[in-house]
Design a protein that fits this description.
There is one protein chain. The chain is mostly helical. 76% of the residues lie in helices and 2% in strands. The protein has 13 helices and 2 strands; from the N terminus they run ααββααααααααααα. It has a two-stranded antiparallel ribbon with strand order 1-2.
Length: 291
């Protein structure tokens, strides 16, 4: 077993040394990078900062995510579901900070500085993808503890761990083989989409059957997530980013997503944290009313 882990470790180290060879298509030089987005020198240090306004938004989002997670932690009172919400939100905050570091703040430094052509990805982005999938699966486990009975809960928890492990293994294979799809946001969507569908289905069915406040509150949070993505793709498809950038205003589709996600995080941190309880406590009044 130690020999197997040693081989995997050596393969990963090999991938680490070669991941910079994944280039953007079409190839892009450092000068071209800064023609497509705002670049400013950071305090005369020679370090280039990308998208200052977007950087501020995404870092603030990451901090808000962690704040919401800590609210669940302080209010957990032995509730397993709140503990998993805390894990999910803290991981989401770390993922947002990691993504902002490479996609926004230091994208030039990480992918272009000192290179003839800019690389396609960075380890910050790969970390974001893995951690974000972990965050969504932790959220699924939280919903399982608050909204499902034992047999369904076991199935959902098993699915969450299988989903997380599978994504990690595919990402690892992508690092080893330098396969772009295996390291892509599109792959993340394939792994997180079913999770979001599952939680929407669980809370929708439960609210239809039991009319519990927590299900309505959670449905509200999933609706905000859905609308965030709708606004993102609408803004992207209409080409507003380039339209505003040509007029000296940088507000990209990512910023639309960041602002929308801030609304979601505040909603979850304030409303969901106050209404959430484990399943055994949540259904006691329902069970009594049915007797």
């Amino acid at each position: 077993m130690k020999r197997v882990f040693s081989c995997v470790f050596l393969f990963l180290i090999s991938g680490c040394s070669r991941i910079d060879s994944l280039m953007m298509e079409p190839k892009m030089t450092a000068a071209e990078w800064c023609q497509g987005m705002p670049c400013v020198e950071l305090l005369s240090s020679g370090v280039v900062l990308n998208q200052p306004y977007s950087t501020l938004l995404v870092y603030l989002l990451g901090i808000l995510w962690i704040w919401a997670g800590l609210r669940f932690w302080r209010a957990r009172d032995g509730q397993v579901s709140k503990t998993w919400w805390c894990i999910s939100l803290v991981l989401g905050g770390i993922a947002a900070l990691s993504a902002g570091t490479s996609y926004q703040a230091f994208g030039y430094e990480l992918k272009c500085a000192g290179r003839e052509f800019c690389s396609w990805t960075s380890w910050w982005e790969i970390a974001y993808l893995v951690i974000q999938v972990a965050s969504l699966n932790a959220m699924l486990i939280a919903v399982a503890y608050s909204c499902t009975s034992m047999s369904t809960r076991r199935a959902l928890i098993a699915y969450a761990w299988i989903n997380l492990t599978s994504h990690f293994m595919i990402t690892t294979a992508g690092v080893i083989t330098l396969n772009k799809f295996m390291l892509s946001f599109e792959l993340l969507v394939l792994f997180t989409g079913p999770t979001l569908f599952a939680v929407c289905t669980i809370n929708g069915w439960r609210y239809f059957k039991y009319k519990q406040t927590i299900d309505l509150v959670l449905l509200g949070s999933w609706a905000i997530l859905l609308m965030s993505n709708v606004f993102y793709f609408a803004y992207l498809s209409l080409g507003y980013t380039q339209f505003l950038w040509e007029r000296g205003i940088w507000f990209s589709e990512n910023d639309v997503l960041h602002v929308s996600m801030m609304i979601w995080v505040v909603y979850v941190g304030l409303l969901v944290s106050s209404e959430l309880h484990d399943y055994r406590d949540l259904l006691l009044p329902v069970a009594s009313s049915l007797e």
